Structure formats: C-alpha cells, structure tokens
Amino acid sequence: MVDEIIALVSTVPAGAVLDATVGGGGHAAAILEARADLRLIGIDRDPQALAAATRRLAPFGNRALLRRARFDQLASVLTGPADGGAGAGSGTPPVDPAATDELSAFLFDLGVSSPQLDQAERGFSFRRDGPLDMRMDPDAPLSAAEVINTYSVPELARVIGRYGDERFAGRIAAAIAAARPITGTARLADVVVGAIPAAARRTGGHPATRTFQAIRIEVNGELVILGPALDAALGLLAVGGRGMVLTYHSGEDRIVKDVFRRHSTRSVPPRLPVAPPEPPYAMIRPLARRPRPEEVEANPRSASARLRSIERVAA
Fold this sequence. Notes:
This protein is an alpha/beta fold and about 325 residues long. The protein has two domains: about 1-110 and about 225-310, Vaccinia Virus protein VP39 (Rossmann fold, 3-Layer(aba) Sandwich), CATH 3.40.50.150; about 120-220, Putative methyltransferase TM0872, insert domain (DNA polymerase, domain 1), CATH 1.10.150. It is built from 14 helices and eight strands. The chain has an eight-stranded mixed sheet with strand order 4-3-2-1-5-6-8-7, sandwiched between helices. Strand 2 (about 40-45), helix 3 and strand 3 form a beta-alpha-beta unit. The longest helix has 15 residues, at about 220-235. The two termini are about 30 Å apart. The model is unreliable at about 80-100 (pLDDT under 50).
C-alpha cells in the first residue's frame, strides 16, 4: 500500500519520519523520494533487514539513519545519542538527535516480511522445511523450538488460541506435546494438520497457518510491545503529523484500533461539571484502508493488510 502511504504523508510538516519496522527499506525509499524535505529514521531488530535497507537507502545519504532496535525502544533511539547508529551508506553521518524530538510521521508495517518467509533457515514458514526458529532478532533468547518443545499443553493452547484465533488450539497443543521432540517446520505443520478435523481442513488456507502465526508472535513478543510502542510514537508526533500502521491479522488490528480510539476520543472524569476537551488526535477516514484489487493480484500476501492512520491536530 505504498501509494496510500505516500498520499498520507503528502501533507505532513517537514521534518523526521520514523519507520519503526524498516525491513528492506521499500516504504522508506518511497517516502524519501516523494518528499525532499523529509528525513527518515528506520529501526528494525533483524540485522539482515537492516543490511538490505542500508543498500536500498544509500542514495539518500544522510537523510536516512538506520538503527538496530525493537520498535518499543523507539523513544531511546530517537532521543538518545547519535553514536552507534547505522547510516544508510558507508561513512554517512547520523541524523542529529536534537532534530528528532518531534516526528512528522511514523509508520509501523507489522508482521513478518517476505524475505523472512522465503528463507527456510529462518523457520518462519512451512512451505519449505527448516529449523524451528522464527526469531526476527537472531540474538533473542526465545525460539520457536523452545516454545514447541517446552511449553505445557495449556500454555501452548493459550498461545495458539489467543494469537492465532485457532478454534482447535487445545487439540493442536495436545498433538504437539505427544509428538515431541519436533525440530523442523515441515514436521510441525504435519502434526498441526493431523490434529485438525478433516472437514475443517477443506476450507480456508493451509491448516497450519494460524498456528505458525501464533508461535511467531509469541517468540517475538509482537503484540505485547505494540501498544506501548504506539503510545510512545504518538507522543512524539508534531501537530499536523500523521501515524500509519499496516496490520495483517485481527490481533494486531484490535490493538491499533483501540490505541487510536483512546487517543482520539474525548474523556473527562465522571460528574465533573465541565465540557470534555477536544482530543489532540483525530483518526483519518476511511478508518481501515484495504489494498486495491490489482495490488492483491500482484502480491497475494497483501490480501489481509489493513492500513489505519491518525493525525495530531493539537498540542
């Protein structure tokens, strides 16, 4: 949804844009190409993604700064010292931290990226056999193998049910425990498929999709850190600045919707004899944009995407 994102940043004030999940730098490059008066700070926990983004953003010189961090660390990245940053290109000076106290815009593109899915050794997908890893940060302590092989049946059922919206979470968790040890993605997918009733396997996509999604979210703590990270990013938005979030499943979307609603809704203590103040943020309509049919045809993985946006309208 690059075109939709560029349209949303077309009116923001000049300044710094945060790409909180920079990935390979595709959105970042499009934003920098569209607005010569914007600079970009891109963060990601995946060193392979940062290497790709560094190559992609090298032509923009010191208009781009890349840092390795989780997006819930964005406040310290934006306001901390400049040393330790990874500029887009060898020898590129970092962006002056004093210029990043306020943001003109921010973007969170959630979920797993296509390069991560396509590398069997990362263990994100069941399409090709690979180790049970699923870590976006390869140095993180928790891997999918530990979740699959050490969590109790109730813990597994909770993860699969909550993060995968999987109605057969209990059956799948019990089947996984009975099949331990499980070391590869293909074996895990077979176990999950075998635990789901045949009638339910005939509809929808691959039966293991929801379980793999749930395990990935647990490994990377994706939903736990999302709400606080959005609160922090919203607090840094300048007046006229806009926040944008791309989500890919209902759990992410619920959190984004709730955070945006909380910041854009009037609130006043009960029985207080004053009119509630106008909220400093306003959600931008349409509230949930969807990818155009031609984009879905060109990139089927975009089919589940939702784009929500919000604007800071007052100090």
